[in-house]
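Recap slide: Ribosome maturation protein SDO1, sequence and predicted structure.
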Amino acid sequence: MPINQPSNQIKLTNVSLVRLKKAKKRFEIACYKNKVLEWRSGIETDLDNVLQINSVFLNVSKGQTAPSADLQKCFGAKTPINDIILEILNKGELQVGERERHAQLERVHNEVVGIVASKLVDPRTKRVYTTGMVEKALEMLSAQGSQAQQEKTATPASGTGTLAPGEEGEPKPKVKEHNWSGVVATKNAKSQALDAMKALISHQPIPVARARMKLRVTCPTTILKHAAKAAGPKVPDRDEDEKSKGTVKDRILSFIEQVERQDVVGSEWEVTGFAEPGAFKGLGDFIGNETKGQGRVEVLDMAVTQED
């Protein structure tokens, strides 16, 4: 037998709240769980799939809707209700329960570990690590970071001195440290994965290196022997005079760690090889500047790995 309820009662279940404080008043909207983040990331574009009810509240749990006078005073007299809802949805603070927060953190954590495991390899065998090994390595870094932070807090900073440049004992410039303190739910998984990879490569809790990219570079043969205007990539143990010399072909090959094959097809020279991901942008800029759009760089494989 159906239960009769008052027609004006607003019953909301499985709800996530988004709150925005404006002009000393707090406004709330009721949304479906997991849909707010999808809306903000651009995955969900239909507002009806995000909102449980197309209204603005002072208190959702009590079903207390916001008076029109309050909305007009805080958001403007001529602001449509949909614009008010969008402002709250985009700028407001998302309220989630402890269980949802933990589930969201776990999702981001798994995504970060998955990205890192697909981009890093053992430099000796070129094999990828399992997600379990990557997870343990990140846990080691997190523990080391916490210990280092405690030691830094306990030890007072020493003076840097006033030695002139070139004097013996001159303080070395600070090098940016890539530390890892764990995954957070408020940051993008891809950016956190990049931070995690930098920390793993910097500290090497396990032997790791970025998986190389496989590239194909095409350039007109008439340009290859021209003197290069731009310098090649920064390579250790190579002085500035050596870096400033060379032809366009020499410079292109200096970006590629391992050449798989090179050939001349008609009026074009083509080389296929492997390069560090960090060299891709420099190579692309060099090709664009030196060939004036006649050469090109193609990515054949974003991450070359050896599977077990």
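Residues 122 and 208 are 5 Å apart (CA to CA).
The domain at 99-151+178-210 is CATH 1.10.10.900 (Arc Repressor Mutant, subunit A).
(End of recap.)
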